[in-house]
Design brief:
The protein is α/β, with parallel strands linked by helices. It is built from 5 helices and 13 strands.
Length: about 200
């Protein structure tokens, strides 16, 4: 693939599971780099907000002045994927904790919603008509749950009836960690949405 044709994707690197997202993007032929400052968003087609601690990442977003630039990035039609803590940060609101969110996904997030009994687990998801994701195995680590999705939100995957992969236009939110398996379909969907036709 020609360098000039490679999609450019960034991974927010304030805290959390950054490295494996960079590897997944690289495997799909994207030019992947970390994002820690507003200037790093320039020229990117897509951004990933990784898992980690949403409270810590939100403080970093505040400190670095990244809330408005990320909202403008999405508003310009660029693609954004939030995984786990990153998905919480995309939500309209976080009901269980005072986390400032980006309000890019019209749904309510609840942090650590599976409780301590099932801090981490893997499960096969049901594709809600989104056959491109069928049979996906999802890894959950102190995962959030999403509720009350607005009319613009599509639920692409569910586990036990609960939404685990949601999409609103160019914004994708996964309550699980797609970077921890070899299944690259969520990252590919991000790059496809960035209009780069990565394969
Ligand atoms: N429990 C974390 C939070 O609420 C999310 C965990 C994760 O990203 N794996 O921010």
């Amino acid at each position: 693939m020609m360098t000039a044709d490679r999609p450019r994707a960034g991974v927010l690197a304030i805290q959390g599971a950054v490295e494996k997202h960079l590897v997944a993007l690289d495997k799909l032929g994207a030019e992947a780099r970390t994002v820690l400052r507003v200037e790093h968003l320039a020229g990117l087609d897509a951004v990933i907000l990784p898992g980690g601690e949403s409270t810590t990442i939100s403080k970093g977003l505040e400190r670095l002045g990244l809330y408005e630039p990320l909202q403008a990035f999405a508003g310009a039609g660029k693609a954004i994927l939030g995984t786990c803590a990153g998905a919480i940060l995309l939500a309209r609101e976080c009901s269980s904790h005072a986390v400032r969110t980006l309000r890019l996904l019209d749904a309510r997030a609840a942090r650590n919603a599976y409780g301590t009994q099932v801090d981490s687990f893997a499960a096969a998801a049901d594709a809600d008509g989104a056959v491109e994701f069928s049979g996906m195995r999802c890894v959950f680590i102190r995962a959030p749950q999403f509720g009350d999705p607005g009319p613009a939100v599509e639920v692409l995957l569910r586990v036990d009836g609960r939404p685990v992969l949601l999409r609103q236009g160019n914004v994708l939110a996964a309550t699980f960690h797609p970077e921890l398996t070899d299944d690259l379909r969520v990252h590919r969907a991000l790059l496809d949405r960035a209009g780069c036709g990565a394969s």
